[in-house]
Amino acid sequence: MGDWMTVTDPESKYISQYTSETKMSPSSLYSQQVLCSSIPLSKNVHSFFSAFCTEENIEQSISYLDQELTTFGFPSLYEESKGKETKRELNIVAVLNCMNELLVLQRKNLLAQENVETQNLKLGSDMDHLQNCYAKLKEQLETSRREMVGLQERDRQLQCKNRNLHQLLKNEKDEVQKLQSIIASRATQYNHDMKRKEREYNKLKERLHQLVMNKKDKKIAMEVLNYVGRADGKRGSWRTGKTEARNEDEMYKILLNDYEYRQKQILMENAELKKVLQQMKKEMISLLSPQKQKPRERADDSTGTVISDIEEDAGELSRESTWDLSCETVREQLTNSIRKQWRILKSHVEKLDNQVSKVHLEGFNEEDVISRQDHEQETEKLELEIQQCKEMIKTQQQLLQQLATACDDDTTSLLRDCYLLEEKERLKEEWSLFKEQKKNFEKERRSFTEAAIRLGLERKAFEEERASWLKQQFLNMTTFDHQNSENVKLFSAFSGSSDRDNPTVHSRPRQKKPHGAPSGSPVCTSKLTKSLPASPSTSDFCQTRSCVSEHSSISVLNTTPEESKPNQVGRECTNQKWSVASRPDSQEGCYSGCSSAHANSHVEKDDLP
Amino acid sequence: MNFSEVFKLSSLLCKFSPDGKYLASCVQYRLVVRDANTLQIHQLYSCLDQIQHIEWSADSLFILCALYKRGLVQVWSLEQPEWHCKIDEGSAGLVASCWSPDGRHILNTTEFHLRITVWSLCTKSVSYIKYPKACQQGESLRGITFTRDGRYLALAERRDCKDYVSILVCSDWQLLRHFDTDTQDLAGIEWAPNGCVLAAWDACLEYKILLYSLDGRLLSTFCAYEWSLGIKSVAWSPSSQFLAVGSYDGKVRILNHVTWKMITEFGHPTTINNPKIVVYKEAEKSPPLVLGRLAFPPPRAAAGPLSSTESKYEVASVPVSLQTLKPAADRANPRIGVGALAFSPDSCFLATRSDSVPTAVWIWDIQKLRLLAVLEQLSAVRCFQWDPRQARLAICTGGSQVYLWSPAGCVSVQVPGEGDFQVLSLCWHLSGDSLALLSKDHFCLCFLETEQGVGTAFGQRADHT
Fold it and tell me: Do residues B284 and B309 touch, judged by C-beta distance below 8 A?
């Protein structure tokens, strides 16, 4: 077969047919070879004229081919011989069939080959990719391994350092201990020495004293012209046991006086403090009692009971007599009630604080949202009512029409049938009645529609009011931010991540995926540029808005492709519970768009290295 | 503010009588008693030698003059100029002498603190108190203290290497209580102004302060820290409510009179950052150039500018760092710690001086328990004393100025007169209207205006801005 291949190769036409494939991939050469070897028949056919078959060996060739074909499972080329003696005839039909079949096979093989090649190609690229991946991963592994080694080294160094420090600490501690023991020993030694020296000194002093006193020093004397009287005019008294007792008495008297004085002072102080406490208590009660209803509304049982306690206590303690009781009896209840009140006050103040902080942090306090929700519910309810009314009106109308048509029919028939005039009159009356009823109904309907319109107007006004309020609040807030972040404003103006107040908000938004960003950003950025130059405060406003509402920015991002329709944006915004953006106004839409755009740009910026 | 003419003085001995009528001063061996208002000489006495110590009796009738070198005490009567008394301690010597509160007994401490002799001017009787403890610091006796009402005397004693305190009744010198104190080396005792509590503190080697009741019970002990130099100064507030303890760590600790625990701790930072604290910085005022007085040979003022230049206060803007002295660690009595403490008469303010920052006086607000003001002088503060009537502090630094601080402001006053008048010490008159300024050889009186005038003067002079 190898011989045939070499023989077939020069076949120009055949080659040219496959060169394109060989160019496609080097592997196709292999497949060609396989093809060549697997289908020798086709080559045999091709090379028939050149070498395989000549004039002389037709018979052999045919028989050979027949053999070959039969071995490959094709029907024999020869006709079925009737007898053994008769020479086998070449069956042209069979030959043609065989050829056709071979050709079909060939085509199929070619197709298969192509498929295999493309697959091969694919696999090759896959392989490449995988190899790339592998290389990359290997690199990564290497770097991480290196990093790990570095870290380990650092860890080791730190541990070493730590050990050294520990050692130093221990040394220092030892040193301190040593020094302390030295100090202690020195101190004892010093004390000992001092004592010894002092004893010597005392001995010397004693000796000196004796010497000085025994000398009968004549110099030691007092020369007085005449003795003066005592300051108090009394004479000196003898020392007796009585005087001693008197002295003791006096001493204790002095001490007692002092203690009494102090006790009096303390009592006075106590009274003052009690007064202050009482006043505080009263004020607290007066301050807290108006809010009594609110906590009860919230079904807060504990506060309710506490307040009732307070009321009781207030009743008790307002009696002045209790204040004159000694502290022990009053103290406990007093302190308890004060404590309770203080707790309430504290929680109240904390709540207020929280609200304030929420206002500062989010820009929208919870209460507002709740009221909004309430409002929405209310409007929904009203709308539903309107709908119901409308339906009622419609049914009534229908009924009326039916009635009217029925009446008409009746009257015509009556006229036609020449009913009684009286009857006709009655019917006419009835007709007018119906008409009036209809008119009434229509009036009612008009009033309903008017009410609906009014409601809508009211709602609009309310929305406007709220928007203005929010705007004001925002302006306040932004001015506050202004003052606060005067120095960081440069960064904050564009980075959008300057808000130091809400780091918790900022820790989150990194995970926001900018899937919608590429499609949405062109629109949004244009809007941003439109709104940015308006005034710096608005840009700040947008920015704060973006920061504030980043918890809802996913939905914003999702909405961005449809932003061209302002109504839809508005609706989306209502879903996000932005009270300002809820109004499907163009300006609000712009605001929301701007904020969302900013969020987008923010995210994009984050993605940038 | 008016100044009197300058009078001669020696050894800084100049004292107002307790009733405020007279002013006694010493010039060598002469004792001059003047009228405190007119400054006319009321009496003149001559002692046997140079006077080293004078003291008025509590009733302002007698003055004792101690001549330590000779072991002599001479007593003079104001009512009877011819009356005299001379007490000779003989060979025992004399190191300290003081009146008893009744003004009829004199307590003399002999040399080596062998004994204290109590001489009576009423009778011939002489009593001896043995074993007094030698805890004297400079002029002031820290081992003898009388209650303010003059009834009791507390005396520090040392026997058999242990410290004791004796409480004696002054009327008949009878021993009332005698107890040992738990101290290594008692350094001083001090009665509270109400006379019911006695504070006793240990020497600087150990931080320990003990509080005893009049009947000898130990009320409390306070120890702020160990292993370091301890108490340097102690002061009771006039209300007996607080006890301020200054120590070598540069802090003042205030104890309260109810629990005897520490209320607060005043450190003396060398840099002041709090903008609420007013820092008055003394600044030299360049003398006004008067053309006519520019004599060709430059006057002496140019030669000695430190004493003669005028000064003023400026309110320094915080942070201010004060000049500190680096103490010599290898010497005894290092110049560190709070060396001087004084409460204002209304107990509202406390003035302190930290010895490591010798140029500054710190004034603390006791009501708010915080630092109120710091006065930084050009030279080291010699002495300061509160006006006995109001919250007004007089300070001298050894220069020719006297400085006054009040909550309204701060003022520096040049002492007029030819030559230098270096104010080394000062003492207030009882009424707070005048102030005696003492220099090495002279003294003069400084009369302050009435309260209103002072107020306006302060308002004008010291602007807080």
Answer: yes
| In contact, A469 and A363? CB cutoff 8 Å | no
Q: Could you read off the pLDDT of A265-299 as tens digits, one per residue?
A: 999 998 898 888 888 878 877 877 765 544 444 44
Q: Three-class SS of residue A150?
A: helix
CB atoms within 10 A of CB A401: 11
CA distances in angstroms from A407 to A399, A421, A429, B221, listed in the order given = 12, 16, 12, 115
- Cβ neighbours of residue A75 closer than 8 Å, sequence gap 6 or more: A69, A94, A97, A98
Secondary structure tally for chain A: helices H, strands E: 20, 1
* Tokens 């007593």 -> residue: B75
d(Cα B397, Cα B416) in Å, to the nearest integer? 16
Do residues B338 and B251 touch, judged by C-beta distance below 8 A?
yes
Residues B17-55 as b/e (b if ≥16 CB within 10 A, e otherwise) read beebbbbbbbbebbbbbbebeeeeebbebebeebbbbbb
Q: Which of B61, B75, B88 to mutate to test the interface with A (most CBs of A within 10 A)?
A: B88
Q: Say if CB B23 and CB B16 are below 8 A apart.
A: yes
Alpha helices of A289-365 — where are they, by DSSP H? Answer: 293-297, 301-317, 321-324, 327-362
- The identity of residue B147, as a single letter, is T
Cβ atoms within 10 Å of A282's Cβ, excluding its own: 13
CA dihedral B182, B187, B191, B197 (to 10 degrees): -20
Query: What does the alpha-carbon distance between residue B20 and residue B38 come to, in Å, rounded to a whole number?
Result: 12
pLDDT at A566 over 50: no
* pLDDT tens per residue across span B184-216: 889 999 999 988 999 999 988 889 999 999 988
CA–CA separation, B284 and A357 (whole Å)? 53
Write the residue in A222, A248, A250 that is nearest to B119 by C-beta.
A222
Counting DSSP H helices and E strands in chain B, the numbers are 3, 43
Identify whether B319 is preceded by a cis peptide bond (ω within 30 of 0): yes
In sequence order, which residues have a C-beta less than 8 Å from that of residue A243 and are 6 or more positions away? A237, B172, B174
C-alpha to C-alpha distance for A536 and A475, rounded to whole angstroms: 11
Rounded-to-integer distance, Cα A597 and Cα A605, Å: 12
Positive or negative, the Cα torsion across A355, A359, A362, A366?
Answer: positive
Pairwise CA distance, residues A98 & A586, whole Å = 79
Q: Do A258 and B88 touch (CB under 8 A)?
A: no
**Predicted confidence band of residue A414 (pLDDT cuts 50, 70, 90):** low
Pairwise CA distance, residues A80 & A92, whole Å: 12
Q: Which of B48, B77, B91 to mutate to test the interface with A (most CBs of A within 10 A)?
A: B91
Task: Answer yes or no: are the C-beta atoms of A22 and A9 closer than 8 Å.
Answer: no
Beta-strand relationship, B401-406 and B393-396: antiparallel
Q: Which residues of B touch A223 (CB under 8 A)?
A: 84-88
Per the prediction, chain A carries an average pLDDT of 69
Q: Give the DSSP per-residue string, A68-96.
A: HHHHTTPPPSBPPPSSSSSPPPB-HHHHH
* Cβ contact B65:B56 at 8 Å: no
Q: How far apart are CA B164 and CA B158, in angstroms?
A: 6
* A183 at interface of B, judged by CB pairs closer than 8 A: yes
Contacts of B114 in chain A (CB under 8 A): 205, 208-209, 212
Task: Please give the model's pTM, rounded to 2 decimal places.
Answer: 0.58
φ, ψ of residue A270 to 5 degrees: the values are -60, -45
- Using CA atoms, how far residue B230 sits from A189, A372, B73, B181, in Å, is 20, 70, 36, 17
